[in-house]
Design brief:
Blueprint (H helix, E strand, L loop, with lengths): L2 H9 L3 E2 L4 E2 L6 E7 L4 E6 L9 H13 L6 E6 L5 H17 L2 E6 L15 E6 L4 E6 L8 H10 L3 E6 L4 H10 L3 E4 L5 H11 L2
Parallel strand pairs: 4-5, 6-9, 9-10
Antiparallel strand pairs: 1-2, 3-4, 6-7, 7-8
Length: about 210
């Protein structure tokens, strides 16, 4: 399966919440230009209507799905035939710039998206944002063992471009390795939801 086929399969999992159909079947994504060697994916998205109330949400869902495909390193998505396309395209360009700079923030979460209450290396998912809080993607934590050196290395590789990790708890040894050996800053939040945790982080670091 080539990279485009993998991307199409990933996009088939993105559904329009109102129409209950995926964006590929609805032909909302098109004009793919893919550089497999560099991992650069360019394509366009057109909401179902010019004033689609979930146009922004769908664009971010689509972009996040493609970003998660193995082999994809950069996603350039442009929106057409949408009343807010200029603002949204500027927003997407800002995300692209932030990704290139590698200023990413990871939030350890459970399956419902709430901040994980236990040690971050046991979290189900890591919600990835830019340093300005723009949502990029969700990464599933596939670690099986706990508190092993190899798993720490796997976790660091898994969060490769993350500069800050937000979680409720973290073992002192893991915190030290993240900060001293891998250059990942740790932020311990007192909040339970993603929105609250991000707000707390940005408020303390503004």
């Amino acid at each position: 399966m080539n990279l485009k086929d993998k991307i199409i399969e990933a996009l088939k999992k993105v559904q329009d919440p109102e129409l209950k159909q995926d964006v590929v079947s609805l032909k909302l994504v098109y004009d793919f230009d893919i550089d497999e060697e560099k991992g650069i994916v360019k394509f366009k998205f057109m909401p179902t209507t010019p004033d689609c109330p979930i146009g922004v949400q769908l664009a971010l869902m689509i972009r996040g799905a493609v970003k998660e495909v193995p082999g994809v390193k950069k996603v350039i998505l442009r929106v057409e035939n949408f009343i807010y396309q200029d603002q949204l395209n500027s927003y997407l360009e800002e995300i692209e710039k932030e990704e290139e700079e590698g200023e990413h923030i990871a939030l350890a979460t459970d399956k419902n998206g709430n901040v994980w209450k236990e040690s971050c290396n046991k979290a189900d998912y890591f919600m990835i944002y830019t340093k300005y809080g723009n949502f990029i993607s969700t990464r599933e934590n596939s670690l099986i063992k706990e508190n092993k050196e190899n798993d720490i290395i796997k976790l660091v590789n898994f969060l490769a471009d993350v500069k800050t990790l937000i979680c409720k708890q973290i073992p002192d040894e893991l915190k030290e390795k993240f900060e001293k050996h891998y250059g990942i800053n740790i932020f311990i939040t007192s909040k339970d939801t993603q929105k609250e945790a991000l707000a707390e982080f940005f408020n303390r670091n503004s």
